[in-house]
Design a protein that fits this description.
By secondary structure, this protein is of the alpha+beta class. It has one domain: Phenylalanyl-trna Synthetase, Chain B, domain 3 (Phenylalanyl-tRNA Synthetase, Chain B, domain 3). Helix content is about 30%, strand content about 25%. The protein is built from five helices and ten strands, in the order ββααααβββββββαβ. The strands form three sheets. It has a four-stranded mixed beta sheet with strand order 1-4-7-8, with no helix packed on it. A four-stranded antiparallel beta sheet has the order 3-9-2-10. β5 and β6 form a beta hairpin. α1 runs parallel beside α4, α3 crosses α4 and α4 runs antiparallel to α5. The longest helix has 19 residues.
């Protein structure tokens, strides 16, 4: 499967991509309990002022470049950061989603996670959503992506840096998955490469998944 970036988005966003196979996804992985608690505590301690810096600011700028107000439509990474700064724990969904949330919080980059069994065709493209394009969200109403950064297969859009689709969501039945890191174009290549490497290692450790391919576009 190829991963493509639409030329008009190349000045705005880059993507780190992982293909994973052989995963065993469980509803609750006890080994994640201490590391997720430590990650949340670290995020709270990192900046007691509550301001946004570095990757979080760059991600906001990325949203503004495509005409979105990031204070109204928040990147998923920022939503996680705000949650833990309020004193809440990281949400627990299943072992694979929990690893993605951990990485997204740590690197302050939005992550998308998709069950490859429900991604159709030989290509996935990161592009702007078409006029009127939408999909059923996970535990949400329809997610409208017209003009916004999204990822799409032959059936249409199924994810964006704020929220993903019910069609491709990862469950305990998932064995193969696609991880997409939505990185502002200003993101240092070394930083994005590090995020991909750490994500791959954690997926192997906590879900048993093996990496079959990776890309940066």
């Amino acid at each position: 499967m190829r991963f493509l970036l639409a030329p008009d988005l190349a000045p705005v966003v880059s993507a780190g991509v992982l293909w994973l196979d052989g995963a065993t996804v469980v509803e609750r992985e006890p080994r994640l309990d201490p590391v997720l608690a430590a990650a949340a505590a670290g995020a709270r301690a990192a900046d007691a002022s509550g301001s946004l810096r570095g990757p979080a600011e760059a991600t906001r700028a990325m949203y503004k470049q495509v005409g979105l107000d990031p204070t109204k439509t928040r990147p998923s990474s920022e939503a996680l950061l705000r949650r833990v700064r309020k004193g809440d724990a990281l949400p627990r969904i299943n072992s694979m989603v929990d690893v993605c949330n951990w990485c997204s919080l740590e690197f302050q980059l939005p992550y998308g996670l998709y069950d490859l069994a429900h991604v159709e065709g030989e290509e996935v493209e990161m592009r702007r959503g078409r006029e009127g394009e939408s999909y059923a969200g996970i535990r949400k109403d329809d997610v409208h992506v017209g003009g916004r950064i999204c990822v799409a297969d032959v059936r249409g859009a199924f994810g964006n840096p704020t929220s993903d689709s019910a069609r491709t969501m990862v469950t305990t039945a998932t064995t193969s998955a696609l991880v997409v890191v939505f990185a502002p174009r200003s993101t240092d290549r070394w930083q994005l490469s590090t995020a991909i490497e750490v994500t791959a290692q954690r997926m192997t450790e906590f879900t048993g998944a093996r990496e079959t391919a990776r890309a940066m576009v």
